[in-house]
Amino acid sequence: MKKRLEELKWRLQEVQALNAVSSVLGWDQTTYMPPGGAAARGRQMAVVARLAHEKLTDPEIGHLLDRLERDAADLPDDGDEAALIRVTRRDYERAARIPADFVSAFNEHQTTTYQAWTTARPADDFKALEPMLEKTLDFSPQLSGFFPGFEHVADPLIDLTDEGMTVALLGELFRELREALVPLVQSISEATEVDDSCLKQHFPAEAQLEFGKTVIREFGYDFDRGREDLSPHPFTTAFSIGDVRITTRIKENDITEALFGTLHEAGHGMYEQGIDPAYEGLPLADGASSGVHESQSRLWENIVGRSLAFWEHYYPRLQSIFSEQLGRVSLATFYKAINKVTPSLIRTDADEVTYNLHVMIRFELEKQLLNGTLPVSDLPEAWDARYESDMGVSAPDDRDGVLQDVHWYAGRIGGVFQGYTLGNVLSAQFYKAALQDLPEIGAQTSEGSFELLGSWMKENIYRHGRKYTPSELIERATGGPIQVQSYIDYLKKKFGDLYGLK
Ligand code: ZN
C-alpha cells in the first residue's frame, strides 16, 4: 500500500507541475505579456492543459485508486491519505469524463476570448464578442453534459467550484438573503446620504500601493512567498505553497480601488500560503471551494478592513501619508465614506449590502442563457433591464454593463458567480465562530494586530486545504452547516449603527 501511495503521489505531483506551468503562463499573460503574444500563448496554454489532462486521466491512476480504495479500509478516516484518495478520485473522475479534445478546444477558445475582451471592453464593443460568447454558450452545456444525473444544467458547473451546491440550494439561500437585503437597502436609501467625496481626491499611485502592502504584511501575507503586481482584473494565483501571487489595479482618483482590492486578494493569498506544507504538489494543496476561498478575501477586505476597529489603528497612518487629502477629514467621516451604501453599476466596487444583488442578477442571467430562454444577442438588454429593476440604475454603455466582469469572457457560462455570495455568507459565519473561541480578536484589530484571527483561520481552514469537503469544513469550523443568519445579523448591526437605523 505504501508503494502504491508513493506512486500515486509522484504521478499527481507531475500533474500539479504542469498545472503550475499553466498558472505561470496565465499570470504572465494578464500582467506583463505584450498583446502580440496572445495567439501563441493561447496555443502554449492549450498544449500544457492537454498534457496535464492526459497525465491525470492516465488509466494507471484509475488502477492505483481502485486498489488504494480497497486498502483504505485500514486507514484512519480522518487522515491525510484517505483524503488524498477521496480528492484524487473526484478529480480523476471529473477529468476522465471530459475528453482531451474538448479541454484543449475550450481552453484555446477561452484564451482568445479573454484577449478580445481586453480590447472590446474599453472600446465598448459587445458585438465583437458576441460570436465568441455564443461559442462559450455552446461549450458550457456540453461541459455540463459530461456529468449526467444532475437536476439542472448549471448544477454540474456549480459543483465544479462549489462542491455540493446546486441551483435549488442556492435559490433557497439567495431567497432568504434577498428577503433581508431588500428592506435594508430600502431603509438606508431613506436615511441621510453619506458624503464620500474625501475618497475621490488625487492619491498618487505609488503611495497607495505602499500603504496596501504595509497593511497586508501586518495581516500576515508573506512577501517571501508572494508578490503583488498590477493587472486589469485583480486576482490571486498559486504556483506552489511557497509562491502565491496577488495583483491589484490602481485609480489615482479613488483610494478604495487598490487598497480594498489588495486586502481582498491578500485574503485569498493567505489562505493558499497557509495550507499544510505536507500537501505541496498534491491536489489537497488548494482551497476547499470557491465559496470558502472567497470567505477569506471578504473577511479580510470587509469584516476586518472596513471595520471601525481597524481604522482606529490605521487611519492616523493613512492621514500622515496623505495629509493634504485627509488631514482635515475625521475618522468618522472616512469610516462612513468607505462603507457608503448605494445601488451601483459595478459589482467589484459594490458596498457590502448591495453586493449580493449583483451576484443574483448574474446567477439568474446565466440560468436563462443555459436554459435557452435568453439568446446571447439579447444579453446586454436583459442585463440593463435587470439593473434597472433590481438596483434602479442604468449603465451608460456596455463597458460598465454586461462587459464589466471577465468571467464569461475568460471562462464558462454557469457556476462562476455564486462563490462570491457564498463567500460573503461564510465570512460572517467563520468570523463569528472565531470570536466565540477568541473574544480578544476585536481588541487586537484596533491595535493593528491580527495574530489571533490569522491563527484561528489557519488552524480551522487554511491548513486543511481540500482535505475536507466544503460542508465538512464549515461544520468542523463553525459547528453547523452554512446559514445566512450570521451574515444578515452582521450587516444589520454594522449598517444599522452606521446609518442610525432603528
Ligand atoms: Zn475574490
Structure overview:
The chain is mainly alpha-helical and 502 residues long. Among the domains are: 2-120; 167-208 and 288-437 and 467-499, Neurolysin, domain 3 (Orthogonal Bundle), CATH 1.10.1370. Helix content is 64%, strand content 3%. It has 22 helices and 3 strands. It has a 3-stranded mixed β-sheet, sandwiched between helices. α1 (2-31) runs antiparallel to α2, α9 packs parallel to α10 and α15 (355-371) packs antiparallel against α18 (418-437). The site of zinc ion has 4 residues, from α10 and α11.
Overall form: globular
**Assembly category:** single chain
What would the CATH topology of the domain at 167-208 and 288-437 and 467-499 be? Neurolysin, domain 3
Fraction of residues in β-strands: under 5%
- The total of helices stands at 22
Biggest sheet: strands, sense, closure? 3 strands, mixed
Helix content: 55-70%
- Give the structural class: mainly alpha
